């Protein structure tokens, strides 16, 4: 069930909800996927990617890549024919994305962003861009901010912890991220990544979880908007 904060008369009243619990299009949405979609997206921009196009399906991701020579495609899970890399922030470091368009399809983060693509402002967020995301919200000072928790059917502990940190930081600059990061470190999402490493899954790297827990690794927020029929994410320095 969506959780609406009470007792907030000031701007930026936070609402925390899962993708499947959305009713209508919010005015301002912060879509959170810590492990691992938007940590990967931020890493791609830090490595020089020009933009990220969000695909609705694996088939659409491959079709976009086929139509646009030079585009790269990322997806969840083990390697798939036609895709350039799994959705791993550590494995991303070996991929040259400079100046490239990256197509991304994941099971949670991209789905959440596409669900609110018609909002006036859509921010894609993880711990690695939490500070810039909060600063951008402070500049805009919307009356209400909907935080879309994408993992585990809207119950992902790491996503909720990150969302609460961003919401708190937007109202209280200098908020200590430590307790929020610890919640994420001990989350079921982090445990699943560890299990994937232990079982030798190809789509996960031993460094993934810790890379997802680095706060403010990058100096930009990530804004998603419709461009030429696609939902495109771009970095915005704050």
Which key features would you list for this structure?
eleven-stranded mixed beta sheet, 34% helix, putative 2-phosphosulfolactate phosphatase, globular, 238 residues, alpha/beta
| Second CATH tier, the architecture | Alpha-Beta Complex
User: Can you summarize the main beta sheet?
Assistant: 11 strands, mixed
- Estimate percent helicity: 25-40%
Radius of gyration: 16 Å
Structural class: alpha/beta
- The name of the CATH superfamily reads ComB-like
Give the low-pLDDT segments: 4-8
N/C terminus separation: 32 Å
How many domains comprise the coordinates? Answer: 1
- CATH topology: the name is putative 2-phosphosulfolactate phosphatase
Q: DSSP helix count?
A: 9
Beta fraction of the residues?
A: 15-25%
CATH class type: Alpha Beta
Can you tell me the overall shape?
globular
Q: What is the number of strand segments? A: 11
Spell out the helices and strands N to C: EEEHEHEEHEHEHEHHHHEE
Strand order of the largest sheet: 1-2-9-3-8-10-11-4-7-5-6
Average pLDDT taken over every residue: 94
Your description of this structure?
An 11-stranded mixed beta sheet has the order 1-2-9-3-8-10-11-4-7-5-6, sandwiched between helices. It has helices spanning 37-46, 58-67, 89-92, 109-115, 130-140, 157-171, 178-185, 188-198, 208-212, and strands at residues 3-4, 13-18, 28-32, 51-54, 72-75, 85-86, 101-105, 121-125, 144-149, 220-227, 230-237. The radius of gyration is 16 Å and the shape is globular. 34% of the residues lie in helices and 23% in strands. A hairpin with a 2-residue loop joins strand 10 and strand 11. By secondary structure, it is of the alpha/beta class.
């Amino acid at each position: 069930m969506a959780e609406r904060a009470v007792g907030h008369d000031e701007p930026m009243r936070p609402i925390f909800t899962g993708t499947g619990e959305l009713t209508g299009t919010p005015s301002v949405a912060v879509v959170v996927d810590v492990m691992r979609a938007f940590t990967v997206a931020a890493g791609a921009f830090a490595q020089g990617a020009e933009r990220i196009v969000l695909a609705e399906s694996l088939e659409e991701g491959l079709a976009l890549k086929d139509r646009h020579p030079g585009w790269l495609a990322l997806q969840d899970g083990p390697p798939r024919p036609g895709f350039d890399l799994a959705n791993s922030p550590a494995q991303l470091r070996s991929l040259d994305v400079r100046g490239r368009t990256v197509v991304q399809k994941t099971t949670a983060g991209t789905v959440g962003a596409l669900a609110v693509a018609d909002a006036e402002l859509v921010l894609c967020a993880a711990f690695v861009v939490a500070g810039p995301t909060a600063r951008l919200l402070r500049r805009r000072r919307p009356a209400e901010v909907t935080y879309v928790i994408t993992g585990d059917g809207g119950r992902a502990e790491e996503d909720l912890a990150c969302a609460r940190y961003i919401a708190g930081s937007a109202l209280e600059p200098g908020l200590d991220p430590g307790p929020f990061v610890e919640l994420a470190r001990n989350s079921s999402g982090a445990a699943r990544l560890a299990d994937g490493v232990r079982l030798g899954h190809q789509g996960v790297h031993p460094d993934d979880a810790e890379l997802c827990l680095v706060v403010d690794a990058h100096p930009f927020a990530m804004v998603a908007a419709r461009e030429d029929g696609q939902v495109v994410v771009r970095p915005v320095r704050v």
